[in-house]
Write a structure and sequence with these properties.
The complex is a heterodimer. Chain A is built from four helices and 21 strands. By secondary structure, chain A is mostly beta strands. Classes of the chains: A mainly beta, B alpha/beta.
Chain lengths: 359, 469
């Protein structure tokens, strides 16, 4: 029987007062799991392989070393999708992680793009609504020169599930990562994401939407690490908290010395819909370079009363307005999923706004 | 061809960087032991409860860890710090009675002149003791008490002091609050009775002259319901090649519908560790306004906290921090919304140059009962070169849905567009850059009385030099 680990994860790159309890998350008594089956749909142009060694093992991730140790202890190797040099896959690869009740699963995935390539990957984490269990997936990314990775990760595990989704990656010259993260279900969900913008004019765009309800917890740590010149990052977060939900968002833009000409923008818009919710937001800008532009903004609160009044005057009741506007935040991001089939499936799951390709 | 940047000079500290020999001053032994604390307590003729309080605080200090989340304070060795230096004079109510060297110090800092022209009262502390304290007759006639804290501790207001002293900032708050509790000396007590408006400001000025010493003054201000006070705090020290320490404490109690404006121009020397704690509690409908200029110190930890305890209480914080060569200034504020319909507004500017490190650190906490509260935070940082550093670490912790919280932060360098616009109006590039940098600190200078705004601008003296090409 494996030894239970007490883990620290999602630690801020620059910590602050401990009494705020926002510097990091903690998980107690995590037992080492084993690999879960990955259902893969791989289009032409993308190569899939399982290897014992992980060439990206040294790549840092958003969650940190404890999660890397957990994943390494529970996996025999890494599942890798590769877009070879000069290969631009027209269709999305799809990796589905379907967890059973009582699961204790860990998986390691690498996404590797050679120079001048493109790849779209949909990673869908699912479980039955009533399922309980634990799962962790660590995805490491290497984006070559002039390459583009579109990564969509959808968390819709069971309402009693603890789930860790960890991402770490690096972009070379003119490489770009576009990430969509949708948090729709799960009881305790942890998200880490670190992208090293190392190459000249490399960039990342991360769009995040969440709906956290009941007594669920969502804990996030996003880190844009600018080391290359003229690098760009954009982190957009839009979410809804209901019932007695708790959410922590840590977002860091780090302009390292030498990252001249870099630009970073980050914003979070949180809609609070019930009196029992608890929201924590801590957006950092760390700067050791003069020639940069960094902005962050956050708005946290209720629906605008004038908007509410307008919609009520049109005959809608408050609950219906709340449902509509909360759903709209999710729908807006679902509409951006760069794969028609995945978009339709997720749209149906969330109860569906108008997100057809004809929009 | 590479573009050569305009050069921004360091703050000119010549008017503050002078010192006199310690003539006949009495020093307690270096270090921090129960014996030293007891000796200090005896020197201060403390009541018994205060002596016990000091010893208990020392015990807490010894058990607390040094913070690991802020600038390094490894260069501070408490075994080498003298916690009490008594100048060779009693407290005076006339500048004529103050010893010549000490009087000259405050003359050069402009304090007596400011008292004559624009203040309702002045307290002047030299090392560990107040050497001058006076309040205008017409202000005293309104029932306003402005005295040194130690006199108040033994006089008519002794019970009030005991009730409030380190009530807002308990020694358990952090390691240097505990240190303060153990070795505090000097500082001011202000009491503004109900309904009294003090139209012109009071000022306390703290001067640390002694090499290798610490200053631990305690400021306690009680503004009763419907009253108004503007209190100005100034501080400076000459530069030495050994560490000096400032671990003062400020506790402000703002009554219902009262307003307290607390302005600070901090210009400690660059060998100073400024580990200061300031906190205000605001009752229903009351307001605290913090105006904070941080220019000096080698290391600063400074985050005035406002506890909005009554319905409709308000807090405003305007701050500017200038970190130059050899400085690591970690500044900001904390706001706690603990009652319904409370509001807070935070507006800060940070400037980093010549290897200076500036960190804006804040927390906005909205507790469950603080429904219908609002908060807006804006922080802007200006990097003047690439050997400096500027970080922003703002936290928001919200425990109710009925709030409206906004936060924005910007970091960058001087805008080329703004320089171009000013040049198109006939201003040279050098002057345009100087104008922009000076205007960047306007959020604080415009909140100060005119005389102090001028002083602050003189203090900054951002001179732009160098070829532009």
């Amino acid at each position: 029987m494996s030894e239970a680990m007490d883990m620290k994860l999602n630690r801020l790159p620059a910590i602050t007062w401990y009494w705020l309890k926002m510097n990091e998350a903690k998980l107690a008594g995590v037992e080492t799991g084993s690999e879960s089956e990955i259902k893969a749909e791989i289009p032409a142009g993308i190569e899939a392989a399982e290897t014992a060694e992980n060439p990206l093992s040294s790549q840092p991730t958003g969650m940190g070393k404890d999660v890397t140790a957990l994943v390494e202890a529970g996996t025999k190797g890494v599942y890798t999708l590769t877009a070879p040099k000069n290969r631009k896959a027209a269709e999305a690869a799809r990796l589905t992680f379907a967890y059973n009740d009582g699961a204790n699963a860990v998986n390691a995935v690498n996404l590797v793009l050679g120079d001048n390539s493109e790849m779209t990957v949909i990673m869908d984490y699912t479980a039955e609504k009533e399922a309980a269990g634990f799962a962790a997936v660590q995805t490491k990314v290497a984006v070559g020169k002039y390459s583009l990775l579109r990564l969509v990760q959808v968390v819709r595990v069971g309402e009693k599930f603890t789930f860790l989704n960890d991402v770490g990656g690096r972009c070379e010259d003119n490489g770009r990562v576009e990430i969509i993260h949708l948090f729709l279900d799960g009881h305790d969900v942890y998200q880490g994401c670190q992208i090293d913008l190392a190459g000249y004019q490399s960039s990342m765009k991360t769009d995040i939407a969440y709906l956290v309800k009941n007594d669920a917890v969502l804990d996030m740590n996003y880190f844009a690490n600018h080391t290359g010149k003229k690098t760009e990052c954009e982190i957009n977060v839009n979410g809804v908290l209901r019932d007695k939900a708790t959410k922590t968002f840590r977002g860091t833009i780090d302009f390292k010395k030498g990252a001249s000409g870099a630009v970073g923008n980050e914003k979070e818009d949180v809609l609070l819909m019930d009196e029992g919710v608890h929201n924590q937001t801590i957006p950092l800008i760390l700067c050791a370079e003069e020639d940069v532009v960094g902005n962050h903004g956050a708005t946290i609160g209720r629906l605008d009363e004038s908007l509410m009044f307008y919609l009520e005057s049109r005959g809608m009741d408050r609950e219906a307005i709340n449902e509509m506007l909360a759903g709209a935040r999710i729908d807006a991001l679902v509409a951006q999923i760069p794969d028609a089939a995945a978009k339709a499936e997720i749209s149906e799951y969330v109860g569906g706004g108008n997100t057809s390709d004809d929009d | 061809m590479a573009k050569e940047k305009a050069h921004v000079e360091d703050i000119n500290r010549s008017m503050y960087d002078f010192r006199y020999e310690e003539k006949d001053a009495w020093r307690i032994d270096e270090g921090l032991t129960p014996e030293i604390v007891l000796q200090l307590s005896k020197e201060k003729n403390d009541p018994e409860w205060m002596r016990d309080f000091r010893l208990k605080s020392l015990d807490i200090y010894n058990r607390k860890k040094v913070p690991d989340w802020g600038p390094s304070i490894e260069g501070l060795n408490m075994d080498e710090i003298v916690t009490y230096v008594r100048p060779n004079t009693k407290m005076n109510q006339s500048w004529e009675d103050v010893p010549e060297d000490i009087k000259d110090t405050f003359e050069r800092l402009g304090i007596p002149e400011a008292e004559r022209t624009s203040l309702a009262g002045v307290g002047a502390q030299y090392d560990s003791e107040l050497v001058y304290h006076n309040v205008k007759d017409e202000v005293a006639a309104q029932g306003v008490i402005y005295s040194d804290l130690e006199s108040a501790l033994r006089g008519e207001y002794a019970d009030m002091i005991k009730e409030h002293f380190m009530h807002l900032v308990p020694p358990t708050d952090h390691k240097f609050a505990a240190l303060h509790g153990a070795v505090w000396s000097g500082g001011s007590f202000v009491y503004v009775p109900k309904g009294v408006k003090v139209d012109i400001p009071l000022q306390s000025y703290f001067r640390l002259n002694a090499k290798g010493a610490g200053q631990f003054e305690h400021t306690l201000i009680i503004v009763e319901d419907d009253a108004y006070l503007h209190f100005i705090e100034g501080c400076s020290a000459p530069k030495y090649n050994v560490a000096n320490l400032h671990a003062g404490c400020v506790e402000l109690f703002v009554g219902k519908n009262a307003t307290l404006r607390y302005s600070t121009i901090e210009n400690w020397s660059k060998n100073m560790y400024n580990l200061n704690t300031k906190r205000a509690k605001v009752e229903e409908g009351g307001k605290v306004e913090w105006i904070s200029g941080s220019f000096g110190s080698h290391v600063s930890y400074l985050y005035p906290m406002s506890i909005l305890a009554g319905r409709g209480a308000r807090a405003e914080f305007s701050g500017v921090t200038f970190a130059g060569n050899g400085q690591n200034l970690d500044t900001g504020c904390k706001i706690v919304h603990s009652a319904p319909e409370t509001t807070s507004y935070v507006n800060t500017r940070s400037i980093s140059k010549d290897g200076g490190i500036s960190t804006f650190r804040s927390s906005i906490t909205v507790n469950k009962q603080a429904v219908n509260s609002k908060s807006a935070v804006s922080c802007q940082s200006l990097m003047l070169d690439s050997v400096s550093r500027s970080d922003t670490i703002p936290a928001m912790d919200v425990k109710t849905d009925q709030v409206d919280i906004g936060h924005e932060a910007k970091i960058g360098r001087i805008s080329d567009d703004a320089v171009f616009y000013l040049m198109s109006r006939g201003i040279t590039e050098e002057d345009a850059r100087a104008l922009i940098v000076s205007g960047f600190a306007d959020n604080v200078s415009k909140e100060l009385p005119l005389e102090y705004a001028v002083e602050m601008n003189n203090l900054i003296r951002l001179e732009m030099k160098g070829s532009i090409g």
